Amino acid sequence: MVLQAAIAAEHCSATDFTGTDFHRVVDLYSRLLSVDPSPGFALGRCVALSYAAGPAAGLADLNEVLALRVLDAYPYAAAARAQMLQRLDRTADADLEWTRAARLARTTAERSFFLAQVQLSP
Predict the structure, then answer these.
(1) 115 Cβ partners below 8 Å, 6+ apart?
(2) What pTM does this model have?
(3) 3-state secondary structure labels for all residues of 2-40
(4) 88, exposed or middle or buried, with CB in 10 Å at 0-12, 13-18, 19+?
(5) pLDDT tens string 56-103
(6) At CA 58, angle to CA 51 and CA 47, rounded to 5?
(7) Which burial class, exposed, middle or buried, applies to 70 when counting CB atoms under 10 A from its CB (0-12, 13-18, 19+)?
(8) CA distance 79 to 67
(9) Which CA distances in Å does 99 have to 54, 74, 88, 104?
(10) Whole-angstrom Cα distance, residue 82 to residue 62?
């Protein structure tokens, strides 16, 4: 709980998204994973890593997490992968992942958001 609060505090203390200390967030997620190896926390670490070290590093880490197959039905795992691919200018691959996220979506709002990302891809 304390580590989760520390992660939230890092996000809240930044004046904007770019002000977030993502290196610190990665460290906190790594510590959290050592005491609670949750797939959701692993996903959070991958996303933070993509901002701390770049989308290629985050994607490599995410691909390792996804290889465990525990997040196959989780739409936000596909969306995270899509977003990293998009940041790497791999638009066609990103669009496939956004579409996959839409198929896995649990609400109409989620589905609409994910599909809108496909339409926004250059």
Answers:
(1) 98, 99, 102
(2) 0.93
(3) HHHHHHHHHHHHCCCHHHCCHHHHHHHHHHHHHHCCCHH
(4) middle
(5) 999 999 999 999 999 999 999 999 999 999 999 999 999 999 999 999
(6) 60
(7) middle
(8) 16
(9) 23, 13, 18, 9
(10) 11
**Listed residue (22, 25, 18, 21) closest to 4, CA to CA:** 25
Which are the contacts of 33, defined by CB distance < 8 A and separation ≥ 6?
41, 42, 45
Look over the chain and give the mean of its residue pLDDT values, rounded to a whole number.
Answer: 95
pLDDT of the residue at 75? 98
Buried b (16+ CB within 10 A) or exposed e, 45-65: bbbbbbbbeebebbbebbeeb
Q: Which pLDDT value is given to residue 122?
A: 58
Tokens of 36: 């609670």
Predicted confidence band of residue 20 (pLDDT cuts 50, 70, 90): very high
Do residues 39 and 71 lie in contact, with contact meaning Cβ atoms separated by under 8 Å?
Answer: yes
